[in-house]
Amino acid sequence: MRRKWLPVLVSLILATAAIYGVAAFSARPASNHAFFAGEEPRTQVIAHRGGAGVRPENTLAAFSHAVEIGVDVLEMDVQRTSDGAIVCMHDRTVDRTTNGRGSVAAFTLEELRTLDAAHKWSPDGGRTYPFRGKGVRVPTLEEVFARFPDTRMNIEMKYEGPALAQPLCALVRRAGMGQKVLIASMNEAAVTAFRQACPEVATSMSRSEAQLFFGIQLVNLDAAYSPPVRALQIPDRLGSEIVATAGLIAAAHRRNLKVHVWTINDAGRMEELIRIGVDGIISDRPDRLLDLVRSSGAMPGNR
User: Distance (Å, rounded) from C-alpha 147 to C-alpha 60?
Assistant: First the structure.
């Protein structure tokens, strides 16, 4: 019986090897994009929501502080108001961060402007609220573009799915920010719709694309993979499983992929990721990360 099946098994192995060889020969690394041009060969400091650990998140106060201290990229979340304005806000509702209540999508921009976007922010667990009542408002993305036209931005589309893609694309083009932004979303349809609307603008991998690459590199088949985009943005862990490993980063670099890991606030883990060559760290504490990058030189190989 074993002798009968042995030729079949050998044929399957040879056929699989041949298919893999053809795929590996025809596979191409990720294409370069202007968003990444000029990056220094070190870990990029990406301020999560502008640096939510040091300033009220997704506000001009946060973005201004992050730019002043020298971050490489501002990260922010966007969604739309009832009258179609694209604003910087993470949650579906304004409850957690402002002195208001209700869904962002239920407010007009004028109504949203009346809220204190720093009302709930405290650097010391609720003992003090240093930005409360200081005129910190929910900004529009257009305002952010106008204030920081030379700063690169990582923009995550929230909640609306593909409906946000076309207006976001139009705003990016109108502001002349096509080479300065990297668009991301946890919503598969939103990423697809944005790529169709704005093919010239950089996007990060969708969830399914990231999962596919993660599986491929685990079984050492990454040489046969042609990445659709240049940015792989991943969580540091899924449960107890570490996702951001040296093996994954090395495999990504072989395919010309940039790897950004979120959301890292612990200095020890920041140091480990810098050491194994991660391309960018998304952090609520960009001040802490900047100190580590500057003190270490953060000049990993294999880029």
Answer: 9
DSSP 77: E
280 and 71 Cβ atoms separated by less than 8 Å: no
For residue 137, give the 3-state DSSP assignment.
coil
pLDDT tens digit sequence for 61-70: 999 999 999 9
How far is Cα 34 from Cα 69, in angstroms, rounded to an integer? Answer: 24
Length of the chain: 303
Nearest-angstrom CA–CA distance, 83 and 93:
16
Structure confidence by residue, pLDDT tens digits, 266-290: 999 999 999 999 999 999 999 999 9
* Catalytic status, residue 48: yes
Q: Out of 48, 119, 253, 260, pick the active-site residue.
A: 48
- Show the 3-state SS of 203-259: EECCHHHHHHHHHHHHCCCHHHCCCCCCEEEEECEECCEECCCHHHHHHHHHCCCEE
The model's pTM:
0.91
Which of the following is catalytic: 33, 65, 90, 253? 90
Residue 32 DSSP label: P
Alpha-carbon span 257 to 217, nearest angstrom: 13
Q: Which two tokens stand for residue 159?
A: 């909640």
Annotated catalytic residue 65: no
Calculate the alpha carbon distances from 25 to 18, 53, 139 in Å: 11, 46, 48
Q: Roughly what angle, to the nearest 10 degrees, separates helices 286-296 and 267-275?
A: 40
Q: By the 8 A CB rule, do 25 and 223 touch?
A: no
